[in-house]
Amino acid sequence: MARWFGSVRARAALGATLVVAVALVAAGLAVLGVLRANLRDQTQLQAHVDARQVAARIATGTAFDRLSLDEEPPVQVVDEAGRVRAVSDDLEAIDGTGSASVRPTSAPPAPADESSGRDDRDDDGAENDADDTDDEAPAGPGEISKDVRFTTGSAAVDGESGDYRFAAVRAATPDGVAVTVYAGAPLATERNAVGSVRDAMLIGLPLLLAVVAAVTWLVTRRALRPVEGIRREMAAITASTDLTRRVPEPEARDEVAALARTTNETLAALETAVERQRRFVADASHELRSPIASLRTQLEVGAAHPELLDVDGAVEDVVRLQRLAADLLLLARLDAGERPPPAARVALAQLVREELAQRVGDRVPVRTGELPGVEVAGSHSQLARVLGNLLDNAQRHARGEVRVELRRVAGERPAVVLSVADDGDGVPPGDRERVFERFVRLDDARARDDGGAGLGLAIARDVARRHGGDLTLRESPTGGALFELRLPEERS
After folding, report:
1. Residue 102 clears pLDDT 60, i.e. is over it
2. Where are the domains of the chain?
3. Tell me, what's the pLDDT at 127?
4. Which residues, 6 or more positions from 382, have their beta carbon under 8 angstroms from its beta carbon?
5. What is the rounded distance in angstroms from the CA atom of residue 488 to the CA atom of residue 428?
6. What's the pLDDT score for residue 189?
7. pLDDT tens digit sequence for 111-123
8. Is the pLDDT of residue 157 over 80?
9. Which architecture, in CATH terms, is 345-488?
10. Closest by CA position to 1, among listed 213, 228, 218, 10
11. DSSP letters of 296-355?
């Protein structure tokens, strides 16, 4: 059962059914309330009309014993002394009017205690909406009062008992005898109609809810069918580790189709990352194999013939191996998402001076242009590594000069641009992005010990982007390569 309710289809069907149930119950109660109010108004209107018809005969001078009440509903005429002056034919009992008597009499009977019966309350237990008779406007001779009072009571007519809504209208005979006419309309019609509608709702509501639940279940199942296909394909991809596969994309342009497209985009990015990692491992293994093999050969030769040991070459191989290992470790940290501390600030002009002060053995001189006092947020060691890699690259290709400059770039997001330019042959436009790929060397014929492992520019760009900036390449004014490191400026 818990598993069934854990299904999206089950929860959707249950939720829709509950919402529809609440809406239908509320609507049903409102309909019953409106229907009951309308039927009660009609019942009261019927009783009012009947009471005024009898009152009109009395006001025109018709004697009480000649009112001809044989076809009227339950009617009772009571004077101000409480005497019953006229009743409808076949009336056997009455309650809720001015008197409990059903026989005309000339002797004044004891007044009926209207508060002890059902006179002052309707069939809902609420007080009647009528005022006391003493508060009604009296009628003059031959007149009918405009006021009407309603009460709920019961009557027995020709052996049949029932509940009635009575309308009380005051009138006066032409000679000034004031009476109150009570005419009743049956409540059975109202109650039967309300009961029929209520029973129909009680029968139809469960059936309608069952239809809603079934339709919601089927619609949700159909809507989630592509999701199930995506899940199955993802499970198959996980089991097979084949990242070239893709999940099916529905033809409909809805949320499920967007999910499928996003999933395929994620799989494509994952495939690219895995392929890049595999290529990285393969290239790293290849790059490490050469210095390790060279170092091993020299050590083996030195062990057999100490006089032939090339110590300088062994040291050079160890240094190269150390640099390559450091580059690989830095790339691994960058790939893992390592970011510089946000609170650290680096003065780029000072960083440039420190880096140039350490480069005493450069092949060509490095000249500096304007170095304004600007600061950026980031890691001092990583930015120094970027500048060092750019200078190393420029030294390998420059003919006679390398130039370093700093400048500010104004705008909504102020930036700082550190440029390193050389006067070498430059880089063709088609290769200006490829040089930032790992283990890429455009000059395949040059020696590895001169050209490096092809990781310097890749590391430089990765560090730049981790610092919220970028590293780009274009042609320098002297025709060589111009690398521009753009970083967000930090202002105090």
Report:
1. yes
2. 1-240, 255-335, 345-488
3. 39
4. 330, 340, 463, 466, 467
5. 29
6. 83
7. 444 433 334 434 4
8. yes
9. 2-Layer Sandwich (3.30)
10. 10
11. HHHHHHHHH-GGG--HHHHHHHHHHHHHHHHHHHHHHHHHTT----TT-EEEHHHHHHHH
